[in-house]
Amino acid sequence: MATRERAEIENGVSLPSVGMDANKRRVTYFYKPNIDAHYHGEEYPMNPFRVDITHNLIVHYGLHRLMQINRPFLADKVDIARFHSDDYVEFLSTVSPQILAENFDSNYCQLKRFNIGGDFPILNGLFDFCRVSAGGSIGAAVCLNCSNADITINWAGGWHHAKKTKASGFCYVNDIVLGILELLKVHRVFFFS
User: Fold this and answer.
1) Fewer Cβ close by (within 10 Å): the C or N end of the chain?
2) Percent of the chain clearing pLDDT 70 (strictly above)
3) What is the pLDDT of residue 77?
C-alpha cells in the first residue's frame, strides 16, 4: 500500500474498496456511549449491551480510525410518528414501570392494545432507547441522502418487526421503516430481511 493511501486510511473515514471502481468508501458509524444503560433484563434476547460490546471490538481492532463516528440525535415524537400511530408513540413516551405499578388496571387495555408485556417489558428509559435507535437510522439515511457517506451503520438499529400501532418481534419502534422513509426523499429503496 502506498504511503499516501496508508495516511488517508489512518486519518479516517474511508475504507479501501475491493470493487472494480477502486474508490474508497466513506463510512459513518452511529454510536451512543453507554447505551447498555437501557438494560432490558436477562430474558430479553435483544439487549443493548451488544451494541457496546460491538463498539469495544471496533475500537480494539482499530476500525474506528477508518470511519467517522457520530452520536445519533434523539428522534422526537414527530419523527417516530412518521410511521407509528400518534397514540402508540404517546403511550411509549409516557409509560414507565412506576406508572404501570401505580395504575396497572387503567393501563391494562392499552398494554394489550399495543402488545406490551411479556416479550416487551416496560423499562425505565424505554422511550429514550427508542429515540436513540430511530435517530441513528434516520441520521444514517440523512448522511446517505446528503452524500456525506457511502456506507452508514447504526448498531442500535435494525428493529424492523414493530408494527404501526404495536410492538412486535421484540421491537418497540421500527427504525428501519423510519430510515427508509428518509431515504425515499432521494433514493429508490429495496429492503430485504
Assistant:
1) C
2) 83
3) 98
**Weakest-pLDDT range from 13-27, 85-99, 100-114, 145-159:** 13-27
- The DSSP-derived string for 60-97 is HTTGGGGSEEEPPP---HHHHTTTS-HHHHHHHHH--H
> What sign does the CA torsion over 105, 107, 111, 116 have?
negative
What grid cell was written down for 187? 433514493
Contact 147, 28 (CB under 8 A): no
SS3 content of the chain, % helix, strand, coil (to 5): 45, 10, 45
Q: How many CA atoms lie within 13 A of 142 on its CB side?
A: 12
CA separation for the pair 179, 191 (Å, rounded): 11
160 is catalytic: no
Q: Which of 55, 60, 84, 161 is catalytic?
A: 161
Sequence-distant (≥ 6) Cβ neighbours of residue 133 within 8 angstroms: 72, 154, 156, 157, 159, 173, 175
